[in-house]
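Objective 1.3, modelling of assemblies. Example input:
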Amino acid sequence: MSTSPERVSPESLSQDGEVQALSHSPESLQARVQRTLEAARERGASDAQAVVSHSVGLELGVRKGEIESLEHERDQSLSLIVYFGQSKGAASTTDFSDQALIDTVEAACRIARYTEPDPYAGMPDPAFKASDWEDLDLDHPWGCSATEATELARAIEAAGFAADDRIENSEGASVSTRRAMAFLGDSQGFMGGYRSTRHSLSCALVARDAAGMQRDYAYTVARHAGDLTAAEAIGREAAERTVRRLGGRKLSTRTCPVLFAPEMARTLIGSFTRAISGPAQYRESSFLLNAVGETVFPAWMQIEERPLTPRALGSAPFDGEGVRTRNRPLIADGVLQSYTLDSYAARRLGLETTGNAGGARNVTVAPGDKDFDALLSEMGTGFLVTELIGQGVNMVTGDYSRGAAGFWVENGELQYPVEEITIAGNLKDMFRRMAAVGTDVDRRGNIHTGSILIESMTVAGD
Amino acid sequence: MIDRLAQQTLLDPAGLGDSELSTLLGTTFGHDIDGGDCYFQFASQEGWSLEDGIVKSASFNIERGVGIRVVRGEQTGFAYSDDIAMPAMLEAAKTARSIASAGQSGRIAVASRSPSRPALYAPDNPLDSLDEQTKIDLLKEVDAVARAEDSRVTQVMCSLAGVHEVVLVLNARGELTTDVRPLVRLNVQVIVEQGGRRESGTSGGGGRFGYQYFRESDRAAGYAREAVRQALVNLEAREAPAGTMKVVLGPGWPGVLLHEAIGHGLEGDFNRKGTSAFSGRVGEQVAAKGITIVDDGTLEGRRGSLNVDDEGNPTQQTVLIEDGVLRGYMQDEMNARLMGTRSTGNGRRESYARLPMPRMTNTYMLGGDADPEEILASVDDGLYAVNFGGGQVDITSGKFVFSASEAYRVEKGKVTYPVKGATLIGNGPDVLTRVSMIGNDMKLDSGIGTCGKEGQGVPVGVGQPTLRIDGMTVGGTQAA
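Predicted structure (tokens):
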């Protein structure tokens, strides 16, 4: 890392001109939440919930050594849900004027006059609300100025160009840093909020050979700038990933084992997470409908939700309704333990909220005992997928068919790059036929998993 | 002449007159600047949704702000403010200018640009085009029609959404342009169940007009019946084939093929940077003879249409491919300037908080002379795909996909049985060279498309006639 993170003391946060200073104080955001809730109550709302958020950020892009774009971000928003008995209305605005606050409350109340009573509507049971919470170590402002960001981005891209002669073009390297603060309050007396940061470095390069061009990228993202991968390493990784795709060819149509690299394995677990979400269940739009208690994965599979992991990208002490989050199993010994529910979905299904308003957080697949190379050996002959394109996942049936690129593998060794093929199967079947999860865990997102080996899928090509 | 609504919504509340705008321009731009703009936007949007037979939730959102962009050479400086007021705008201007040399203090005169042609849509607020109870009744009608259509329907989810957007663009040359844009959308999804098997079907439409559109010509009910029909077809679907085969694409929305295979690759930014599989190929044969593809932002009321783009330039019909030969790219101002050409009115942005770039409007292929029936009859063994989800493309390698949601097996010239959805994959620069028959049934989609690029979504349209493609890879599970 060529720059060091700079700590900003809490006292300086609301000072003007400070790098990553938020322009609203925690007190002013809380006061705005309170004013909104009061205005809703004055207009007859029986219950209300308001969220006020604010963020500042900087994104700097360099291409071929020159600054390509410098974007300053400064966002704010107010969103509100009101209940009139069992009728619900929602409204939001980016305008922080007093008039806009009133207009937003009135819009939500007006809507609630027209929406029909829903027996399941309402606030979460106060007993589930978070009352106090640990500091999850999410706020680490990075005192990276535009000038420093420029040097960093140049270093990333230069390392990429230097890594291989076949890198002939660039889509640029970028440095991004963002700091946010949000407060949630409701008419039951809940008030909570916290600050968080998110920084990233990325690079996308283009290589060419006689057959044509290929592009690939690399990135790193973290709450704390000190946890980012070094700039030069990102440039080199982008170059390596790009160059190794040159000379890609199609495969003939066949059935074979498929190894999903960690960043692609994440998408499989993402489909699992969507399938066990409250709305997918109560809308009967899930291939894992009513599957709690059923064996969904092989008996060795363990998946947990870990929202309380310090510094992790998906962490949160409470959910979008103020309900406390907790670390809990989703899959134990291959069996589905629970859905991910907010209070509405819970009431619909006759269950209790699991603190998942806003989704599942830090979904973590327990790694097996093999690293990536060992998984390649275990697969022996098959397809390693490193990129997927298109939607191609039917959440109702689990039918799966996506465009893919990667490498053909024989005897555990990469033979040649592959492109313009599809891989297909059914997710229920693919989950049951998982053969292993690697130790090469990718933590750059809300789903943490190593590579995943699937016994068999259909590859369509020539 | 400044549009009155734009004046009242964006300028008057902040007390912005010609003098203030001249000062803002003078502070932001100067002799060392190649371009840029102050983009003022006000958007109000609502969404009503029905499930379980009741309209249980709705939302309303207001966004207002100004984005200030300064362009010099290949560099862009950008800042925005949610607060349309002189102090906040001057601060944003200073930040956006930081890519250029020392600050300016001159003034640039403001001149309004008049519309170059009649408006493509009425400026009326679509949110007010029906009263709230009628919006709810419309959704309930959709629900009732879908449920009455077949007893196997177990779930109906539908939504009605509207946006009213007021845009004012003040560019670095002092030219001021306004546009007021309505957009509505109705969407229906149904789940059907038979013997424990569940399938879904989706339909919908919309465009730049009021909600009355859905009450005309039985449209809303038509969407409901169409969603049920698709879901029931899928209940009978067998495994899809895997491998390369002849593919017949139906007319309309399957034009997403063109959007992915050709459209994105012909956007100016990728070609200026040389990262598109189509870079430097103007004048080359990239499609079969007889194929002409245009991007046209001037179609009245269409979802992808605009009076002016988000840089204030009139949209136009741009010929991308003419009789199989690549003719040109879609451009915004910056990429046009750097490539020595002119904007084609394709500079678009999701909002004031994001940067504009070259984007498609309505992209479609002109019709040919083949009878669609003849096209199907000519296929001995292949796939007939009539409905699709979305698609995606890798601009640089040219590889693209689009996913069928309703498809059939074709054997000996006859449509034999439905197959499950499957992804089709191909190579943009050569897939259209394999088009062997072009139908006479050119159709635009019903107004449902949203295109995503660099995280920005904008409404678009696609269209095409029935096409026969001799060899595309179909990503099913049944290896031949």
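Chain A touches chain B through 79 residues (CB under 8 Å).
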